[in-house]
């Protein structure tokens, strides 16, 4: 089975993640690109051997397109993803699903009305280290989870985005809305939900724009740092920090503290997953490193999305799960 896919939005996430992974998938025949800036779409069509849709409607009305990636900026997700679903397309939407839980629920309604598959790109679930950690926790090899800590930080989106400048839409309240909480934080919230098979219920957080400035030299309109304390529905306690101001190597580490030991994830380059048992035994899993902005590898997200279409399976990251993570982000911002 081979079919065409469309991509809405032709920024860096499309160029470095979605387009090359669609190109490498054996079920994808051709990629059709749409962007409000047609030159961006034309550049990617040339780079990946696809074609260009001049209008969004041209993409949505194309009967050869079975699936669409919504890689538009945050404020447009509830519009583009809902339209794509109601046009009869399966959709992979970038995170966050929307700029509010209300808008996310609108997308979920469109999903139900269309009968099409909607998957959200919470890609941390697909790394080998996180999947192995989930397996260890599910089997209760270290007993029950007691506490956790997680962080996600790098130098900021201005070096990653298409403009390569501090004019990036990530710094604009009306487009990004959540700042670093919706860019990096939501990844770790979803990851904690996934690893612990639990949901974060209570949040106490500090948020701030500590260092980033916009193209006029003014402090940005959204937070560039978040530090919070969390409690899950099952009573686990944890801390989390998300930052656009880690001016060195990326930090994507998580630690899970259990009754009979500790799981350390992405803390050592030579061993992405380390288990330290209460008796002193240390097990190092030498599995693949996580993809970063500076280390582009296959995330597995596109392959998982295509597989759920071809095999008619439930997407591995559902809209309900994405909304649960979005609810936590809103609690973080309300807490401050």
Written account of the structure:
The chain is an alpha/beta fold. It folds into 2 domains: 3-122, 3-Layer(aba) Sandwich (Rossmann fold), CATH 3.40.50.720; 124-291 and 318-335, Dihydrodipicolinate Reductase, domain 2, CATH 3.30.360.10. It is 33% helix and 25% strand. It has helices at 12-24, 38-48, 56-60, 77-86, 101-114, 128-138, 173-176, 180-196, 301-310, 319-335, and strands spanning 3-8, 28-34, 51-52, 65-70, 90-93, 118-120, 145-153, 200-208, 225-232, 237-243, 254-258, 261-268, 271-277, 282-285. The strands form 2 sheets. It has an 8-stranded mixed β-sheet, with helices on one face. The chain has a 6-stranded parallel β-sheet with strand order 3-2-1-4-5-6. α6 runs parallel beside α8 (180-196). The radius of gyration is 20 Å and the shape is globular. The chain starts with a strand and ends with a helix.
Topology record:
Elements: E1 3-8, H1 12-24, E2 28-34, H2 38-48, E3 51-52, H3 56-60, E4 65-70, H4 77-86, E5 90-93, H5 101-114, E6 118-120, H6 128-138, E7 145-153, H7 173-176, H8 180-196, E8 200-208, E9 225-232, E10 237-243, E11 254-258, E12 261-268, E13 271-277, E14 282-285, H9 301-310, H10 319-335
Parallel strand pairs: 1-2, 1-4, 2-3, 4-5, 5-6, 7-10
Antiparallel strand pairs: 7-11, 8-9, 9-10, 11-12, 12-13, 13-14
Helix pairs in contact: 4-5, 5-10, 6-8, 8-10
């Amino acid at each position: 089975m081979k079919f065409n896919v469309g991509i809405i939005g032709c920024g860096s996430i499309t160029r470095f993640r979605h387009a090359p992974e669609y190109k490498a998938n054996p079920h994808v025949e051709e990629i059709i690109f749409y962007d409000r800036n047609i030159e961006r779409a034309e550049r990617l069509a040339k780079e990946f051997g696809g074609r260009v849709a001049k209008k969004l409607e041209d993409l949505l009305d194309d009967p050869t397109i079975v699936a669409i990636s919504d890689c538009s900026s945050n404020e447009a997700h509830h519009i583009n993803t809902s339209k794509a679903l109601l046009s009869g397309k399966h959709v992979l939407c970038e995170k966050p699903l929307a700029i509010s839980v209300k808008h996310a629920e609108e997308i979920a309604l469109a999903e139900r009305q269309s009968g099409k598959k909607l998957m959200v790109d919470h890609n941390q679930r697909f790394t080998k280290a996180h999947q192995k950690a989930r397996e260890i926790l599910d089997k209760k090899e270290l007993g029950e989870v007691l506490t956790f800590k997680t962080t996600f930080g790098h130098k900021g989106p201005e070096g990653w985005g298409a403009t390569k400048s501090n004019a990036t839409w990530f710094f604009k309240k009306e487009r990004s809305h959540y700042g670093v909480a919706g860019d990096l934080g939501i990844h770790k919230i979803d990851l904690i939900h996934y690893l612990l098979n639990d949901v974060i219920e209570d949040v106490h957080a500090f948020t701030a724009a500590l260092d980033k400035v916009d193209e006029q030299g003014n402090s940005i309109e959204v937070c560039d740092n978040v530090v919070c304390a969390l409690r899950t529905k099952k009573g686990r306690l944890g801390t989390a920090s998300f930052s656009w101001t880690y001016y060195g190597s990326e930090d994507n580490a998580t630690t899970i503290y259990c009754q009979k030991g500790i799981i350390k994830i992405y803390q050592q380059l030579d061993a992405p997953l380390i288990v330290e048992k209460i008796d002193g035994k240390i097990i190092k899993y030498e599995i693949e490193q996580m993809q970063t902005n500076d280390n582009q590898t296959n995330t597995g997200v596109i392959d998982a999305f295509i597989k759920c279409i071809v095999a008619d399976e439930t997407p591995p990251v559902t809209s309900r799960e994405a909304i649960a993570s979005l609810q936590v982000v809103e609690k973080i911002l309300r807490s401050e």
